[in-house]
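Class prep. Sample record?

___
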Amino acid sequence: MEPNSVVQWGRRRLLCLRALAEQRALVLWLASWLLHTGGCARQDPKEKPSLPPAAGESAGAPSAPVSVEVADNGLTIAWSATFEDGATNAAGAWRVARARLSVKDAATGAAQVGLRPRVWLSARKEGGTALAHEACRNLVASFAGGLLSAQPASVLDGYLVLALNEDPSLSIIEPRVALARTKLQSLVALPGQAADWAAAPQGTSVFVTIPERDLVAEVDVLRGRVRGSQDVGDHPTRIVPRGDARSFWVGNDGDGTVSVIDGDARAKRKTLGSGAGHQEIVFLAGGRRAWVSASDSETMKVFDAEHGELLAEVNVGRGVVALAGSDEAAMILAARDNGELVVIDEASRAVTRRIPVARGGASVAFAPGGRFAWLAQREAGAVHVFDASQGKIVQTTRRLSRPDHVSFTRNFVYVRELGSSHLSMFGLAGDPANEPPKLVQVAMGQAAPDGDFAPSFAAPMAPLPEGGGMLVAHPVDRTLYGYAEGMMAPIATHPAYGRSPRAVRIVDRSLHEIEPGVYEAPFRMDGGGVHDVAVQIDGPRKVTACLEWSLPDGDSRPGEDAFGIEPLFDPGEKLVAGQTTTLRFRLREPIAPRALTALFTQDPTGYVWRGVPKAEGDSVYAITVKPSTPGRYRLVVRPNQKAGPLMRRATWTLGVRAGDSEVLPASEGGKGGRK
């Protein structure tokens, strides 16, 4: 570029920035123009918009905790919660908080350690009074039993289920004990189809790779939305947390690099050269060293995981499709698609053995204890058991139908078979080095899970946190199946609400002891007012107690106007089932035509309308829906990806009452029907 051109370009850029600083309205108009035309500055066609923070995330320091306490059965229980943001989340006025429960001996003040407290928050009805002990016990019993008629406002117990779907979405499901029912808590729209994911500490967020957009998106589990995104390399697939998940390593298959993301700062820290082709990553030595393979490279690279320094290169050969590492055995296993299992000594960083196996894709993982590794080979229909102490395969089970993934509980190995409607289980109680593990097959759905789905590197199975069970994603059946060991059929079937789940993950939301007698967990809640905090503690001294906790109503709900969309309908007026209704709203911020999307769906499942709102002029948009049955519905309006930086989504909860007709329509301009 010529010097004069540089000067002229800089002047144009300065004028644009000055104009942007003068008027907020002009900021919005120019930002939209810049996104769609390139504006003053040149824009890389691959550049992605950064996603905005949630409302309130930048609102300042956390609020001061509000503390209450109660004494029961010789114990003093103190409850407090500190809100982490100064305003509500854009999706439904939820606030995120951190709960703190302190349990001490009432007489001595000694901290009570090793407990598993369960807590439920329930909004008290207007005019209600504090709960007597018997009423408190009944309330706790209804919450603990998972009764559908008794739904708490917030729960600090159990777990959430996350499903990574075939379409660009992530489902957050809250399992229910009673009647094996589930509740779809949130459906998160992703900026593209996902390939892999990894959880942040405490499971409050998950990081998802989006290959088609060259980015990693962060999904806030508590708020149920995409919190932000980070540009990485070309075509990111694998993402692996290091140690305590303070950093995440992302394999960029398109440019032969690995991006290291700081888990605390949510920013890319460095980029490392790893080699061409598909990347696989494992950490050893307590997370201090990272081993990275590249399918089109002859060598595997070893990095100092803390500083990113290249320590060594090990010649393993091309075509590595799977990696597994064991700190106990100080060993790495690399499965190659040419029919070879490569054994690498971690200390000497040298190949010690090459074991012939069948050609084709494979999955390999070490069982708990780090001695035995299980290798599943799809095309060969075989599962091998490798003994690290002997450095060889000691058992092989054949005639399986395209086994593609292995996962472990304390007592069993679970093997998913793509070509079978059964789930295979092998016992871990015996010694595989001396006797073949016993194979048990249990029913899994109506069809084999193999289908025309995009490649996924995320695990389709997740062990249940209480142990003794597994949750399995079945994309063809559009269902999540729950298994308990010893049962020959699923103990629970969780519908995926019309979507095809390719991977599943479990997030523990219970209280954990952070110091003697002090238990903490993040949670979310809606609205203010008086709440009953129901506490149950099982142990030598059982406790069931209810504390009264008050919050100002105005402290937690700023209203829908904060989202730049004004509803032209009355959210409190109920719609009529079977009757066509037009819902209109006005945008306070300019946006390009067809840059909005809307979702109108029954909660938790049922009628769904999805489409583009119709522009009626003067910034007014409308959708026409025909809800099929009475119940609670949710309307979500949000910009599409290009408009993302300008606005956040707006959410309304609407009621639908019974009408003369409750016939389910096939389509109403969007996508009708049951999901």
Q: What stands out?
A: The mean pLDDT is 81. The radius of gyration is 27 Å. Residues 3-22 form the longest helix (20 residues).
